[in-house]
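Writing this down once: the sequence line spells out the residues, with the fold written below as integer tokens. This is how one looks:
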Amino acid sequence: MQINKENGDLSDNMATTVRRRFHSRHGNLVLLTNNSRTASRNEPRQEFNNGLVISKTVLKDNEIFEVSIDKKVETWSGSIEVGITSLDPGNLEFPTSATGLSEGAWILSGSTVLHNGEAILDEYACDLDSCCIGDHIGIQRTQNGELHIFHNGVDKGVAASDLPARVYAVVDLYGKCTQVTLIHTANMVPNNNENSSSSEAESDDNHGNREEDEDTEVEEVEDVVVAVDNASVSLPSNDALLFHRRHGTLISIINNGRTAERGNARDEFNNGVVMTNRLLRSNELFEIRIDKLIDKWSGSIEIGVTTHNPDTLDFPSTMTNLRSGTIMMSGCGILTNGKGTTREYGEFDLDDLAEGDRIGVMRKANGDLHFFINGRDQGRAASNAPHIIFGVVDLYGMAVKVTILEWIPPAAHAMASFIDHRVPRLSYLRSLAQQELPNVFEAGAWEWTDKPHFHDTCGIHAQVINNGLTAHRPNAMDDFNNAVVLTNRPIQTDEMFEIRIDRIVDKWAGSIEIGLTKHAPQELDFPSTMTNIRSGTWMMTGNGIMHNGSPIIDEYGLNLDRLRERDRIGVMRKRNGDLHFYINGVDQGIAATHVPSNLFAVVDLYGQATQATIVQPGDYQVESPGIRIPTDDGTLRFYHLHGRNVKISNNGVRALRPSATGEFNDAIIMSNRALRDGERFEIVIEKMVDRWSGSIEAGVTTISPEELDFPSTMTDLDHDTWMLSGAGVMKDGLMLNNSYGLDLDTLHEGSRIGIVRLDDNTLHFFLNGQDMGIACTDVPSDVYAVIDLYGQCAQVSLVPPTELDNHLQHMNSRTDSHGSVIAVPGLLHKFHTVCGSNIHLSEDLAVASRVRTFDHAVTFSSKPLRSEELFEVKVEKIASQWSGTLHIGLTTLNPDDISEGQMSLPVTANSLRSKDTWIVQGSQVKHNGQIVKDNYSSALERLEVGDTVGVKRYPDGSMHVFLNGENLGVAALDIPKTIHAIVDIYGIVESVGITSSAVMSLESIKPPSISSSSEEESDKEGESTCSIPVHPIHFHNNHGKNIGLCNENMTASRTASYNQAVVISDCPLPRRQLFEVKLEKVTDEWTSSVKIGVTSHSPDRLGFPASASNIKRGTWIVQGDAVFQNGHKVRTFNGPNLDQLKEGDTVGIMVDGQSNLHLYVYGRDCGIVADHIPNPCYALVDLYGQCVEVSIVTEELGAAGVPEEKEKASFENGLKENTPRSLFPIGGNGRVCEYQNLCIRFKATLGLPDAYFETNPKFNKCYCDPCRKYQGTSEYGDQGDPLQRYTRPFGWCKFAIKLHCRAETLNVFDMWHMAYHGTVLGAVRKILDSGMLLLPGDITLGGGSPTEQSNHLNEDDTHKPKDFDTKQIFVSPSMKYAGCNVYSRQQQFTDPKTKRVCTVSVAFQVRARPNSYTMGPQTIGVNHSIDPYIENSKIEWFTKERSAIVPCALLIRVE
């Protein structure tokens, strides 16, 4: 049978159905079934390759070898690969994938055609990676030697030509594709016996392939029907898609039928239905662009398909009213015939789209209906969609105007791209000429005469400046992506394209990305990030390489995320097709092979990277080692060899961890020489970040820097090293003493740490000049100081010994009006972040540079200056083309007032009039622009690089200016006390760096007291009890359209409807600060209720959706009993359901120091609901449904948002009572938990010191039956590493114990196991006094000694194991076991309030270090199961290690 390609007619020949099989030899993970017609890949979720199968016989000419995709998994990237090979599978050594066939193979991988592993066509008309389950893929070798690929019966065109006559079909079950089945295809074989016989004879003579005829089953089939898309109906025309002339009553069609607009849009929200003028074809995209939206109505555009003919349809007011033949996307759901079939579909909500966004719909050939948002396929919305469909759009609510976009079919687009991209280019002609006429056009004869520049067409957040040499992201603090820039021409072979990073910000994660792409800047639809491009692109991102959006190398070269300002990155395509990247001129090796030529360089200014400049080899000088490494003059410095995440600056005096919020380790630094006996190596902490646990570590080692292979952390040094980590002294990684007098984890900015080895071989540590005692003995001489900038510690500087001695001598004599102060060596001043528009601040706000012109360069000190505090800068760079020079002085202007929008920043310091300002300008002194002193000093007019200029206010109110350390005398008088330094980097001075140190109160650098070091977390269920400053928070003026604010923005009310009522805090939510709201008004008119959470969006830039759950990025919301992240439900929890809250109830959120989000209800911590919360984040409240009005709970209502209600003092029975209100009111109606109050009254009778317990009652918890039911707490939990099961102490009341600071350092609450220890009343005080559980025979503080409990493994117990040592500590993960009368003896108690006699028991909740205890069976002699969640054989734990058990709460049970 033959097909006439011009008219599609079939010849009268009979079709034959050919049944083929896969060859018995295949990839080593393939399993053949179904008589070798089905192939599947074993272990599809563990392995992605080794799934190669080949046809058993040679393909006949024009035969289609077709498979159906049966199964896919989403674990991997990439999918099925198909093609042909001339190699005999019987003799083939199978590679891991089809692309590894390196001889006689033509393979389609994704949309790229490869010949022998090398790409010959980048964008073929079929993309195999997008194929779905059920799709058919066919392979055909035509009689003229061409390779064709078929997708669902549609010929996708020529993939390759000049194929050999004898080829086999190849199918690779790669990546997502895990199973395929051969299907019977109607092949066009002429039904002519003579021709057939001669053909078969010829085949046998030429190839000797008798097996082919034996293994190929041929069945005659008559009346073959060839399925053509929509062939059974009137086929859609090829006319352009337009809107139909008939439409909804408020619609106007303009722009030749391409644009539809709803009239009277502010008065009417419906009757805006429009349809296409013709039927949609299968695989045809109907796409529209939103041109206009109005912010009045709720709801927005809806789009879909319908079988209704627009010529006869009675158009409804809204399309969702149609009850037949209609599939619509509305909001984030799918409606079929007006009823919801999919509640949450895709990544986007149509109600949240903005003007310019695109929406499309397509019916695939297999009947699946897909929607597209801005070109991104949202997945299958419906299956078995009808063939006869029209496109339909409903301009509903906010949507007013849309335009149909022209769609180019993939095959036409590929051909157009091939022609448009390659033919017109000079590079293409050049390469063609070199290939065809190598003798005329020798390699290198043609070169680009112009250097590459950035093209003006770039991402929406990027801007090209500096004549095309520089690209930057102007609003770098507000956005982190959409900043892709490309070169204006392709990069030549062996041409280095290199850029220099000019500017970095620390706000975001990730950084610059660079690579090559075939896409020209004029034709690229710029993505948010270049790694989203799926064709013709190679990118280096982080330390990995990606090709077409998929990683091909995970560990390659240095990590781009760790590069800093002035670092250089380059890319080059070698003549052999290899791709190389360069960092600071160093080749990182081969990143990819077989990379085609004529590619554009691409740079993505992502995340931290905000500006980059193209550089040529002559634009920079390679620094010699002598420039970076100070000469060895005997002065102590940091050595130039260090951990990979450290930067040494300031001539070896300062060390910092550049990516302090993204990296916490790999930051070890060492002294440049060995320490002398008695010599103090001292550093000052300059910067800390509130993100990680743990902090700086310090010590000494005999290992020289040249010999050390720097590990990730200092504790990994396993020989010849003595160090202090937290409060633990370690030698070679092993703990010697865990309670040294100095705890490094408690230090703060400004703290000084010293290390001294004395001649008696002892090692001492110093804090702020005070010797903390001997840490180690027998420390050899010639040791190097070693510091680890770990965790929270991000930057330190060395304290010069001379400065240190001088300050130590005068510490007690320096005073002023502010009290005792000292200048802390190394703790440099900083510039304020408020500065002129031409200023760039770097080096942690210590260097200010003017980036253009000569003005708009005013800077301020970051804080007000104290009396006699010198603020000094050093001239770093001069620009001689300007006149004028630096201005310096003092001002009463607070830069924070400018940041809050209260006033604007002047062009120059001289023009500042709004606040009292005194400046020295050249030889003149001016006050508010008026000259008050002339001829002050002419030296300031002749500043040079290296000169220092400073300003100081003395106690008598006089201002003095210093030049190179020399006091130039009184410049002005009567200067107020509260002043900032002001420096105008004007005229010839282009850059300055701060050289002066800050002044601090002596009290702020005292060693921590015992009380301060005892503040700890009370439990995993609570938070840190350390004092956190509370920042006032209000609602922001930017909010949902149905919100009204009052009470100084402390109260928010919903004014209409049930949604559009999202409010956000006016400032970021500080870590460990509770944000809580009270429900002031609730209605039962609606369902659902308040939603609360956090978002990383700034309130100034947030586009408020109808509901907080619809925010698609950087947002975590608690709704009902579920948590939503970026609009998707990620989990449910067992705590209170927010939909059940009543008027007067409170709900809040808090982000702890580990970036975990906690939910609070009635002031009670309900646990962690989300983790990895970014900083900064803003509190978000949605007054949804039943919730009509909320108010922010202020500090006056208590730390937890619930007032601590004090009962009247009662002196009955000599007991003074001070009982707090229960923090968990039952039912939210204000009633208190009487059981908890009863336990509190009993605890008061024990006379236990308050200092042993947490002062904040929110860390206490009641487990009585009513509280348990309301909380919804489960009966058991899993805790520690590895996880260990425990049961909760139902029926008991918990009182949290204040723990030592080492508990957090040891990660007790996250890593240790939960257990319980039953005891008697007389032992409670003894355990609290010692801080640990006691072994039998231990001597307590009072002189007593605990004894073994009766009925527990005594000498006469028959169930005691032989030779078992009973002098151990016993605990249990089961409260039912630990709280039984054997361990927790009951005692009578008379309630002083009710006079009722009760029985009471006590126990301790403890944490047990993993692997420190032994599990054993129950030893109380029972025969039944004690706890349904803990096996009797593992219910008792025992250990002799006292420090392995930490009591964390006292438990009381009253019956």
